[in-house]
Design goal:
The complex is a heterodimer. By secondary structure, chain A is α+β, with helices and mostly antiparallel strands. Chain A contains 14 helices and 21 strands. Among the domains of chain A are: 225 residues, no CATH class; 208 residues, no CATH class. In chain A, 30% of the residues lie in helices and 20% in strands. In chain A, helix 1 crosses helix 7. The longest helix of chain A is centred in the N-terminal third of the chain and has 29 residues. Chain A starts with a strand and ends with a helix. In chain B, a hairpin with a 2-residue loop joins strand 14 and strand 15. Among the domains of chain B are: 109 residues, 2-Layer Sandwich (Nucleotidyltransferase, domain 5); 138 residues, 3-Layer(aba) Sandwich (Rossmann fold); 112 residues, Dna Ligase, domain 1, CATH 3.30.1490; 66 residues, no CATH class. In chain B, 56% of the residues are buried. By secondary structure, chain B is α+β, with helices and mostly antiparallel strands. The longest helix of chain B is centred in the first third of the chain and has 31 residues. The chains are: A alpha+beta, B alpha+beta. Chains A and B meet through helix 1, helix 2, helix 6, helix 7 and helix 8 of A and helix 3, helix 7, strand 22 and helix 12 of B.
Chain lengths: 638, 692
């Protein structure tokens, strides 16, 4: 069964570590990775690291097992451990103090080439005792600026496993290769330095712990922490009813074969204190750029497992996953092999995690969550600044979207998707100061949350005007397979992208929420809309005071309240007529209403894309400021 | 008995906390300091203050200055008991307050929460207007819409309105105009606009700051009015000043408008007190460590200056509301005397952050607490005396504490109860050490180079252990550590802080343009800082938030004014490089830097009261100070028959070798084996910590 990852069984003879020292080591490890995180964040050169926090730091044992991962990308929960293990295997013991190991091999990290992953071996009395690691997203690693890749070679520089420092000395030739292959080398080198500082911090603090508490105490403490985490997870799994649970969903397409669904089937087996997640029913790898490596597939199962068993247990460590087996053959869309294109690696795994929750919903309705918008909802923009013609790349969006409702509460409005954790959006005031862009609107999307006894969270909408020409792409998913509801809750709205041309009446929409390589002229705007979360329970059971509040605040329109929630309003007001509402709800229930449409079948044809549109003549000769204001007023009042 | 104080030069200060109100009365002519501690009276806080003033042997009619720190603003936010408010904001941005930064810190918790805005969506109104990032007006303010929105809000019964327009940090005219329109039409409303509180970019944080000010405004105003009336009735004719989160004072007129500036006044005053203490004994690097019943807090004094931050999340990282304004950088951890110890699945021993609080409190209080706490562990180890707590006013139940520790911790873990108690304290010590380390390492500093000034009810019990964990050599326990924030207020200065976002590459930055921005901030500061006060001087501090071009995060760099007068661009760059090197371990002299914001603090210096010296004694404490021995447990030594001393009976120059306990009304200082204590001229305990 080489497709199956068996959770590792412990080989060491059990030593009863002191519970006090164990707890001290545990707090110490959490503090180490927190310090690494802050150090990286504050020294990074790019908004994606500092504002968006698109990175993960961690400490690993001498075999590459996770000891502590700092708050970072949940979907990278497995990527660093596998990368460290690959590095250990690659160097076969040829690792010295002062070495710094680097790779961005997408098939090892499981993700895209932007994820430069550094590791520093930690030595104590000449013995290798662990690794300090840091992955961070570089905004540019070369490759084509055009979206729509179909192999890894067009996606940028591939750095195999190398020693970027050897016994303390930088390898200038390798650094020169990196500098030569990226578009803005000064920025890349800034992030490079920041990552080195982070891994060095981890190394230093781990060595201090060893000196302070002793080798055996620290390593024994780590074993005990893993045992504690394992015990907690097993207890939770044992409480789940045994059985085989399955669910399916799909991705809209792979970005190349438009409209061709990509099936996602998952199976979860609960038996005693063991859970097996079988992902062999997930689609084969695709032609487009949505593939990810096998470690991303493992992450899907681990993220879902952690959410259900030990969501707040820190630090994240190997022990938490000893009760989990994963079945995943190679060549699936989350276990892709070379030369699969990986640029949007993060998108499909989020839906797989949601599908695991969907499968387990009948078994544990009070622990799961309805579907969420499951996409980062970003736009990729590049252009030149008018004042000095300098080239810039801007990762726009990260606008957050709706999350699913639960058995006891509404889904959250406008929060980052499952792939990311502590990721922040960037302040609009900062964006406008740095780039020739104007954020016209950043708001919630009324009615986007799936109706339910508990409502799905609302998605968001961001309208951004180009003040100078830009190239814009947004490769979202889940426009057609909408975030699903559970137990009678309805689906939320899907993700969407549009372009609005200057002085035109209608927006241009894009199939499956994918706008590739659009050229925007001054006054044009792009619009990113994130989906809402699915509802939980029938909307006819929603508390009436809460419903009234929803309508008063505009989270739900009056029309939707009537159609989906059975509301009857007292004439000319937003006050509910309670008796009439109850009667209407009873009638709707008998008729099997409201009706949910979890899948959008309409496929919009691709508009002619890369050609600049023919522009309407401007109403009169305007200054730049007047044109910006004119365009904004048109859109906000249309 | 406290002798009646002379009525000419008395300074009163009051720190009103959740449980206790602390009052300090200081006589400037004699240098005498009197203290009073009473229970806080939540329904009518002035009553508690009045009691405290009486306990401190003073009266309002005798005072010429009343300094006040209060939790009224922060509690209004945490308890969600503020005013019904509306927000007027730029077209397209009504939801920014609710969307926030979209992050999900509890990344694996499917039941995660996010911040809850203080203003509901139906009371957030969009106004047609727009500025760009350069401050150019793209769309003029729709004044009629402002009036209509305000009317609609008033019809809904709001008491306060916050105004946030995009880029108001660059050009505030739309916010100013809108505020004028609303205030003129509705003079009874509390109206606040974002640029008055923060002139830094980041629209969500500024919205939240303005909204919080509106939310607490009416209640804080009522509170201050009530206080002023009371002071009038009590015959007070002096000046009434409030402590800000910066540790600086401002007058009650400013406090009525910028209410949010008093958010963290109590903790800030403690740090200011620690700085004054350090100044008096010539220590320039110290950590102010404050441990109470539920939390431990740490702030930093570096090269004689209190370290500040530009923003904080009120209510915690995961769900807190941001407030963007200068304040003392104080970090906290949920470890206090009431923190509960528990054994969780897999025999995991956890200490805090759950706290037994004051009620039911630790098991040994006998008020119904069943879970063992840090206080119970201290009692079982002999560090607290069952008959000595609060001067013996509150007997503690040692048997019950021992039993709880045994049943809930020791037995499940296979430890003996003493090991369990000692283990709980060790865990607590390392957790607190992490927060102390945190405030220093985040600046690239090493805690071992600092002294530890410990206060708060529980600070003296744990300070020496925390210091040893961090290789800190010196611990100072000030006089009256349980009243330290009230003491800190007495030594605070008046202060105004300004920040102005000004994105400019350093190479292009025009010195006359910078001078103009600084001059305007300083003009405003000088005009308000000393209103109605007798100042001994006015000091101006300048700083800039800077970063390398392309970096996102900016670092605040203190800049001597001479660098500006001599137009020393290279000097500014060199200072930035140096600070970056210290904090982050690298700097690049050849790389370009840019300015993000300019900062200015205008400090109205108050005459500093000279503190009285205590009586001088010999190295050996007087016999009267010795209060017998009791067995106390120390790791490595086991139970040791340990001498105990009465702190008020100690004299300057007394030396005590550990192990020892030094007891006073509300606190016990634990002196570990190998530690040495000397009482200084002011009565502070200076502990030389044995290296661990």
């Amino acid at each position: 069964m080489n497709d199956m990852v068996k959770a590792e069984s412990k080989t060491n003879t059990k030593t009863m570590a002191n519970p006090v020292v164990t707890e001290i080591v545990r707090n110490g490890l959490v503090a180490v990775t927190e310090e690494m995180k802050i150090n990286l964040m504050r020294t990074a050169y790019n908004m994606i690291i500092y504002e968006a926090l698109d990175f993960t730091v961690g400490m690993f044992d001498a075999r590459g097992n996770t000891v502590s991962i700092g708050l970072g990308l949940p979907m990278f929960i497995r990527g660093m451990s596998e990368t460290v293990k690959a590095k250990i295997a690659h160097f076969k013991g040829d690792i010295d103090p002062g070495d710094i190991l680097l790779t961005n091999d997408a098939y090892i990290t499981g993700s895209h080439l932007n994820h430069m992953t550094f590791s520093v071996p930690v030595f104590h009395d000449n013995e290798l005792v662990g690794f300090s690691c840091c992955m961070a997203h570089w905004p540019d690693v070369g490759g084509t600026l055009m979206e729509g890749t179909t192999d890894i070679f067009s996606e940028g520089l591939q750095m195999p496993i190398v020693k970027i420092h050897r016994k303390g000395l930088p390898n200038e030739e390798l650094i020169s290769i990196i500098r030569t292959n990226v578009r803005i080398p000064e920025r890349a080198m800034g992030d490079f330095r920041a990552q080195l500082a982070a891994v060095k911090t981890g190394e230093k603090r781990f060595m201090e712990m060893m000196r302070k508490y002793g080798r055996d105490e620290v390593l024994g403490g780590i074993e005990s922490i893993m045992d504690q985490s394992e015990a907690l997870a097993r207890e939770r799994v044992r409480a789940m009813p045994d059985g085989v649970y399955e669910a399916e969903s799909f991705m809209d397409d792979d970005g190349i074969n438009v409209g061709q669904r990509v099936p996602i089937n998952v199976k979860v087996i609960v038996a005693g204190d063991k859970m097996t997640v079988d992902l062999s029913g997930v689609s084969k790898q695709v032609q487009g750029f949505y593939n990810s490596g096998i470690t991303a597939g493992y992450s899907c199962a681990q993220v879902a497992f952690k959410c259900l068993t030990s969501s707040l247990d820190l630090p994240i460590n190997e022990g938490q996953f000893r009760a989990l087996d994963i079945v995943l053959p190679a060549g699936r869309v989350v276990s892709a092999v070379k030369p699969a294109a990986m640029r949007m690696w993060m998108t499909y795994p989020m839906t797989i995690v949601d599908t695991i929750f969907k499968a387990l919903a009948p078994a544990m309705p009070e622990q799961v969550i309805s579907g969420h918008h499951a996409d980062l909802c970003v736009g990729r923009i590049n252009g030149r600044r008018p004042k000095d013609d300098s080239f810039y790349i801007y990762l726009g969006g990260l606008i957050g979207g709706g999350w699913g409702a639960k058995f006891n509460s509404d889904g959250r409005n406008a929060v980052i998707a499952m792939n990311d954790g502590d990721t922040h959006n960037g302040p609009s005031e900062q964006v406008e100061a740095k780039y020739p862009l104007l954020i016209e609107r950043y708001c919630l999307r009324p009615d986007s949350g799936g109706a339910g006894k508990f409502r799905g969270g609302l998605g968001a909408e961001q309208v951004v005007q180009a003040r100078h020409p830009i190239r814009f792409s947004s490769l979202m998913e889940r426009a057609r397979c909408k975030p699903w509801g559970l137990f009678g809750g309805m689906s939320g709205l899907g993700n969407a992208v549009a372009v609005h041309r200057f002085n035109q009446t209608d927006e241009t929409h894009f199939p499956s929420a994918k706008a590739l390589n659009q050229v925007l002229q001054p006054g044009d705007a792009y619009i990113i809309r994130s989906g809402g979360g699915g509802g939980f329970g029938s909307p006819l059971e929603r508390d009436l005071n809460t419903l009234e509040h929803d309508v008063r605040c505009g989270y739900i329109t009056r029309e939707s309240a009537e159609t989906y929630y059975g509301a009857v309003f007292a004439r000319d007001s937003l006050k509910l007529d309670i008796a009439a509402t109850q009667t209407r709800r009873a009638g709707m229930k008998q008729q099997g209403l409201p009706h949910d449409e979890p899948i959008t079948e309409v496929i919009i044809p691709f508009p002619s894309t890369t050609q600049p549109q023919v522009r309407e003549p401007e109403p009169e000769k305007l200054t730049e400021e007047e044109r910006v204001a004119f365009a904004m007023r048109c859109r906000c009042c249309s | 008995m406290n002798a009646p104080l002379r009525d000419s030069a008395i300074r009163l200060s009051a720190d009103v906390g959740g449980t206790f109100t602390d009052v300090a009365a200081f006589d400037e002519t004699t240098g005498a300091l009197r203290l009073g501690k009473t229970l806080t009276t939540p329904k009518r806080l002035v009553a508690g203050i009045e009691n405290g003033v009486g306990k401190a042997g003073s009266q309002f009619s005798a005072a010429q200055l009343f300094l006040h720190g209060t939790t009224v603003a922060i509690n209004t936010i945490l308890e969600r008991s503020g005013a019904k408010c509306a927000l007027l904001t730029t077209q397209g941005f009504r939801d920014i307050y609710e969307i926030g930064r979209v992050n999900r810190p509890e990344s694996y918790n499917l039941f995660f929460q996010k911040h809850q805005p203080l203003i509901d969506r139906d009371l957030r109104f969009e106004i047609m207007e727009r500025m760009d990032a350069q401050g150019t007006v793209l769309i003029p303010l729709d004044e009629e819409q402002v009036l209509k929105a305000a009317q609609a809000a008033v019809d809904e019964g709001v008491q306060a309105i916050a105004i946030l327009f995009l880029h108001s940090y660059r050009n505030p005219i739309h916010e100013q105009r809108a505020k004028t329109i609303v205030s003129t039409k509705f003079p009874e409303l509390f109206v606040t606009s974002s640029h008055e509180l923060s002139q830094e970019y980041r629209e969500y944080e500024r919205t939240s700051t303005a909204a919080a000010n509106a939310y607490v405004g009416p209640r804080v105003q009522r509170y201050l009015t009530e206080m002023e009336e009371h002071l009038g009735t009590a015959g007070f004719v002096g000046n009434f000043l409030i402590v800000q989160s910066t540790g600086g004072l401002f007058d009650v007129g400013d406090a009525r408008q910028s209410c949010i500036r008093m958010l963290e006044s109590g903790p800030a005053a403690g740090v200011v007190g620690a700085k004054a203490l350090c100044d008096s004994i010539h220590i320039s690097n110290a950590i102010a460590f404050d441990m109470g019943g539920t939390t431990a807090k740490a702030g930093v004094i570096y090269e004689g200056n209190v370290l500040m931050t530009g923003s904080a999340l009120i209510g915690g990282y995961a769900t807190g509301l941001p407030v963007q304004m200068p304040m003392i950088d104080i970090q906290e951890v949920g470890t206090g005397g009431g923190s509960i110890a528990r054994v969780e699945v897999g025999n995991a021993l956890r200490v805090g952050p759950e706290s037994a609080g004051a009620s039911p409190g630790p098991v040994c209080y006998g008020l119904g607490g069943t879970e063992p706490t840090i206080t119970d562990a201290n009692l079982v180890l002999g560090r607290l005396g069952a008959d000595r707590f609060l001067g013996g006013e509150m007997p503690l139940d040692l048997g019950a504490a021992k039993q709880a520790l045994n049943e809930r911790i020791a037995t499940p873990l296979g430890l003996d109860p003493i090991e369990a108690a000692e283990g709980i304290l060790r865990i607590a010590t390392t957790k607190m050490a992490h927060v102390v380390r945190w405030v220093t390492t985040e600046r690239g500093l090493d805690a071992a180079d600092f002294a530890l000034v410990a206060y708060g009810g529980a600070g003296p019990l744990h300070a020496s252990a925390v210091a040893r964990e961090l290789s800190i050599g010196t611990v100072i326990i000030p006089r009256a550590p349980g009243h330290f924030s009230a003491y800190g207020m007495l030594v605070a200065d008046l202060r105004r802080d300004f920040v102005n976002t000004w994105f400019t590459p350093l190479a292009d930055a025009s010195f006359p343009a910078m001078e103009e921005i600084f001059a305007e901030m300083e003009r405003q500061g000088r005009a308000t800082v000393g209103r109605g006060q007798t100042l001994s001087g006015v000091a101006v501090e300048r700083a800039a938030d800077m970063r390398y071009v392309g970096q996102e995060h900016a670092v605040t760099i203190d800049l001597p004014i001479e660098l500006f007068t001599s137009q020393d661009r290279d000097g500014i760059k060199a200072r930035f490089d140096a600070v970056h090197q210290t904090r982050y371990g690298f700097s690049v002299a050849t790389e370009k830097a840019e300015i993000v914001s300019l900062r200015s603090a205008i400090i109205g210096e108050m005459r500093k009261p000279p503190f009285e010296h205590i009586a001088r004694g010999s190295a050996e404490p007087e016999a009267a100070a010795f209060r017998g021995k009791r067995p106390v447990y120390f790791a490595g030594s086991g139970f040791v028959d340990t001498p105990t001393y009465d702190r008020p009976a100690l004299n300057a120059g007394n030396r005590i070798s550990g192990p020892a306990l030094i007891e006073e009304h509300a606190s016990t200082t634990v002196v570990h084996p190998g530690d040495q204590v000397e009482v200084d001229a002011f009565g502070d305990l200076v502990i030389t910590v044995r290296r661990g």
